[in-house]
Amino acid sequence: MERLVNKQIFGVIDATIHSDSFELLTQNRPVASLPFAGRYRLIDFMLSNMVHAGIDSVGIFSHHTHNSLQGHIGSGKVWDLDRKNGGLFFYVQNEHEADNAQLILHHNKAFFSRAPYPYVVIAPSNIVGRVPILNMLRQHKEQGSIVTQVVHSGKVLPIYLLTREHLVDLIAGMDKGNPKSLLAFIETSLADIEKTPYEVNEYLLTVDSLQCYYDNTLDLLNQDKWHAVFQKQFPVLTKTKDEPPAKYYPHSKVTNSIIANGCIIEGTITNSVVARGVKVGAGAIIRDCIIMPGVVVGKDCILDGAIIDKDVTIAEGIAVKKREVKLAVVPKGEFVFKEWE
């Protein structure tokens, strides 16, 4: 793992990203901790980017109701962020600050003022893929930029690099509008400042809607896209769970799918992503679906164009299908005993 010789940069991740289209999946979790690709969470990708850049101090801004994110990341040990100096910091908006980024920034401005690093990179939690932050820093210094911002395939992304002092000055002088998130504050504060683009040529995905989440997940069934996201030299780090390999019964059939550890498969699965510990009964058919951890699919069920959240149980013979172009989404912990509507 590449590390900086001198501590030059610290990271900030905005995990307050919200979209109404995620409503059924984010009742008990933020977008940042949505399961992705069978065994990861969305925030794992940006956290891993920062760690691979040698960043050993990361602040995560999140909403007060989202304990699942803290449960997933814990002390940051997986990302080598459980340390005495630096490490992982959570800044959680309480119910009075939930829609006011100025309050949480004001209350936690010491984090930025005291950080012993000359630069800061600020990013959202819902971008999947590799962002070479060290190369971004190198360009920033060589060109003497005030602010550097990531550009991918002609699209500007909300990933910023600037000096820590500049950020502290922005916080001290914040008086523009009423931004509802850290990134909204940054975007507003930097609106009139010239930003140097840093072009990222890697394969990047921005997961900002339910349809996007579904499409980008199933796109990973393409091996080229899978290897573009999961590069061996820059592994995506995540919380590990010790589970046995997936078990396939003699009459099971799996084609063009991702099956995580701990699954028991008796039915047929096609073009789907199945997370850890899922049980699929005999005669069940799963097509074009995202199945999250701990789901139990009964015998002779039909799942088509669906997203099934964690710990859902689907009774025998039940159909869960998309309607025209509308995905079928079953929230966490549901017991489905009749055709899902």
What would you say about this model in short?
With 341 residues, this protein is an alpha/beta fold. It has helices at residues 43-52, 67-73, 101-107, 109-114, 133-142, 164-172, 182-189, 210-219, 223-229, and strands spanning 9-14, 35-36, 40-41, 57-63, 87-93, 119-124, 127-128, 147-152, 155-163, 195-199, 205-206, 247-248, 253-255, 258-259, 264-265, 268-270, 273-274, 279-280, 285-287, 290-291, 296-297, 302-304, 306-308, 313-314, 319-321, 328-330, 335-336. The longest helix has 10 residues, at 43-52.
What does this structure look like?
With 341 residues, the chain is an alpha/beta fold. It is 22% helix and 27% strand. It contains nine helices and 27 strands. The strands form six sheets. Strands 5-4-1-6-9-8-10 form a seven-stranded mixed β-sheet, with helices on both faces. A six-stranded parallel β-sheet has the order 12-15-18-21-24-27, with no helix packed on it. A five-stranded parallel β-sheet has the order 13-16-19-22-25, with no helix packed on it. Helix 2 links the parallel strand 4 (57-63) and strand 5. It is elongated, with a radius of gyration of 21 Å. The model is unreliable at 1-6 (pLDDT under 50).
Count of strand segments? 27
**Unreliable segments (pLDDT under 50, ≥5 consecutive)?**
1-6
Distance between the termini: 47 Å
- The side-by-side strand order for the widest beta sheet comes to 5-4-1-6-9-8-10
Share in β-strands? 25-35%
Residue-averaged pLDDT: 90
